[in-house]
Design a protein that fits this description.
five-stranded mixed β-sheet; 47% helix; Cytochrome p450; 17 helices; binds protoporphyrin IX containing FE; 10% strand; alpha+beta; 10 strands
């Protein structure tokens, strides 16, 4: 048996490369238990998949992010609910979050991506996270919701500030709390305006979304519920795409043959997005709380135990993927867990895939030969989100 390794989701050291630790857990400790931090963790693809499907045993209602599990925030957003509450919310918000509405956004996403890239033309170096990938996703969500262009810089700044954490701190700084209040005030007014004067946008559709009268709980969404849902989009749908794009550009640079393939054939971009979701996904684990004693691989997870389903590890499970540590944009993937699975599977997956494809092709078209200097990679630290806080690229003359 290999020497025991520690999986500490708060460790900066682990952030550099968690994958060897995950592999050890898969082989030697498939039901990993961290006594001091008080959690269990599943890392094998099949175990994570089974747990995602078994929401009755693995509850989201106590929260899904380790440091916030059991706190007051739990249960207030769809992502922290179990059926039937989650089912009602999901059915209502899905009425507004239709593939048709999202597909119609393609020209606007292309315009937003190009506008941010236009500003970088002619520069020989820039930070692709701060100057591009951290700007695009919130502007896209704003466009979808119907937030006017004049307000989008403010909404993006508040949303990004809500996510900000000082190095080494798990809890939000005062500026972050203040930005959340500003965002909430703005949304309250925007929802109120649309109640009085409906528009052709997602916010209006959320207000008018209805369930059949014979549904178990047919109440439409309250203003408060709409506001909390939008705040969730401003976090879950914002930081994830920012991090996915930066990780993809990093790994394409590390694998120049793969980058060449993509530059030559933009039709490979959807496959590259799936591969990064398997290989190095932004959302590394989803926390759950066991509602009963669970026996697995000869071990017992007790009722009330906190369990991390490490989907980031599941993508590297050799029991599921051949040569899992190879980054291959042409890999055929039937299923990965980068968007989770089951009842809570990412509601924004279609949007995330579309905007990641558009952004990647637009970026590579302009800057096919970007280089990353030795000190260009700045890693972010978070227990569940993996990615780069900054990625400085250098553009060779004429490239
Ligand atoms: C690459 C980008 C993204 C990744 C990796 C990602 C990942 C995930 C994952 C893993 C979950 C499941 C959480 C759980 O099981 O506890 C989830 C849920 C969710 N995601 Fe995403 N997401 C992304 C982008 C987006 C976008 C763009 C939106 C919307 C604008 C979005 C909205 C949501 C919502 C609302 C949920 C909660 C669904 C529910 O609880 O029923 N996500 N996402």
């Amino acid at each position: 048996m290999a020497a025991a390794l520690e999986y500490d989701p708060y460790s900066y050291e682990l952030d550099v490369d968690p994958y060897p630790v995950y592999r050890w857990m898969q082989d030697e400790a498939p039901v990993y238990h961290h006594e001091r931090l008080g959690f269990y963790a599943l890392t094998r693809f099949q175990d994570c998949l089974d747990a995602f499907l078994d929401w009755e045993t693995y509850s989201s209602a106590e929260g899904t992010v380790l440091e916030f599990m059991g706190s007051a925030m739990s249960g207030t957003m769809i992502i922290f609910m179990d059926p039937p509450r989650q089912t009602r919310m999901r059915n209502l918000v899905s009425k507004a979050f239709t593939p048709r509405r999202i597909a119609a956004l393609e020209p606007e996403i292309t315009r937003i991506a190009n506008a941010h890239l236009d500003a970088l033309e002619g520069r020989d170096t820039f930070d692709v996270v701060r100057d591009f990938t951290a700007k695009l996703p919130m502007d896209v969500i704003s466009a979808l919701l119907g937030i006017p262009e004049a307000d989008r810089d403010d909404v993006r700044a508040w949303s990004n500030a809500v996510l900000h954490r000082e190095p080494g701190e798990q809890l939000p700084p005062p500026e972050s709390v203040e930005s959340l209040a500003r965002l909430s005030n703005y949304l309250e007014r925007a929802i109120d305006e649309r109640r009085r004067r409906p528009r052709d946008d997602m916010m209006t559709e959320l207000i008018h979304a209805e369930l059949p009268v014979d549904a178990d709980d047919p109440r439409p969404l309250s203003d408060d519920e709409i506001q909390r849902f939008i705040t969730l989009l401003a976090t879950a749908g914002n930081e994830t795409v920012t991090k996915l794009l930066a990780s993809l550009y990093y790994w394409l640079w590390r694998n120049p043959d793969q980058r060449r393939l993509l530059v030559r054939d933009p039709g490979l971009a959807p496959g590259a997005v799936e591969e990064i979701l398997r290989f190095d996904p932004p959302s590394q684990y989803q926390g759950r709380t066991a509602t009963r004693d669970v026996s697995l691989h000869g071990q017992t997870i007790p009722k009330g135990g906190r369990v991390l389903l490490i989907n980031g590890a599941s993508g590297r499970d050799p029991r599921k993927f051949e040569d899992p540590d190879r980054f291959d944009v042409r890999r055929e993937i039937d299923l990965h867990l980068g968007f989770g699975y089951g009842r809570h599977v990412c509601l924004g997956a279609f949007l995330a895939r579309m905007e990641s494809r558009i952004a990647t092709n637009a970026f590579l078209k302009r800057f096919p030969d970007y280089e990353i200097p030795e000190d260009g990679v700045e890693r972010m630290h978070s227990s569940n989100v993996r990615g780069l806080a900054g990625l400085r690229v250098e553009i060779p003359p004429g490239g």
